[in-house]
Automatic annotation (TrEMBL):
This is Uncharacterized protein. Residues 339-360 are annotated as: Disordered. It comes from Ambrosia artemisiifolia. Pfam families: Ndr. The keyword Transmembrane helix applies. Belongs to the NDRG family. SUPFAM superfamilies: alpha/beta-Hydrolases. Keywords: Membrane, Transmembrane, Transmembrane helix. Residues 351-360 have a biased composition (Polar residues). InterPro entries: AB_hydrolase_fold, NDRG. It comes from the Eukaryota.
Amino acid sequence: MEDSTHSIAVDMQTLYLGGKEHIVRTGHGCVSVILYGDEEKPPLITYPDVALNHMSCFQGLFFCPEAASLLLHNFCIYHITPPGHELGAASICPDVPVPSVDDLCDQILKVLNHFRLGSVMCMGATAGAYLLTLFAIRYRDRVTGLILISPLCKAPSWTEWLYNKLVSNLLYYYGMCSLSKECLLQRYFSKEVRGTLDTPESDIVQACRKLLNERQSINVLRFLQAIDRRPDITQDLEKLKCRTLIFVGDRSLFHSEALHMSEQLDRRFSALVEVQGCGSMVTEEQPQAMLVSLEYFLIGFGLYRPSQSNGSPRSTLSPFSVSPELLSPESLGLKLKPIKTRVPSRGGDSTRYSSKMGSV
């Protein structure tokens, strides 16, 4: 199975909270894909962060009624799970080489080819956002739009490298212990929802902690090692011409990374939404803050929120149907205002003004 060079799928007739699980064999191992919705609709691909799957990374957004009506009405959802992160996954053999981000990117291509998908909309969180961005850079004709949550684009900083080293050592020597989970929860959520001495942790953190208990530590370690070895793709961001919407919480450990990425993208095709009082996992912590921007983003592709009487759409995701006005960042939100943001410019350090969505 690990040596296979073909993309052969074994359909598992398994209900996954209403979705069907497919196991897709690739040259770099097997990938679990959970499919929701009508396969005649345009495809939306998701990819989660380290140690998460679609239930622990995107469930909050898809359980939000307004978001569910918007996304499930317009898309067939393909949740790609990192190797060994699916429910009930066994430990990956230590002798199997750790995949590179290039290998994981190739897996995404195999998944698209197996389902005979053409151009897709992509939604990724942190590590998953990096992989989908890398995929969009390499296969520009296969990606129509990017929705990125607390994305990465640079190689790990010393701070992140030390943090990942700590988590890796904990996973290797102690498994998914309490301290390992605390480090991962800090990666995902703001301090407010993680709880303090005076306030208990929120329900979403408790649910995520339980889901982390189900992860095989070696599988999480392998994915973390792959992301920790990622190259800097900053210079390649200028090649992206698909419309891109970035969400990041102002309490996220990757807030500065998201700002940096936003500065490098073509302003005609991208916008940044900073969510106040939120950590990295905006989809779980404050999914309602994503709704307005998501709706305006999808309007640019001719997609819409259904009314009670509307039937199922057969709208395409052709960027050629987008009017010029909808390609500007201002079209992606109701209220935008200049926010003074100190971001290093390409020619040196300076204070620059950039349009950000200030209504969240």
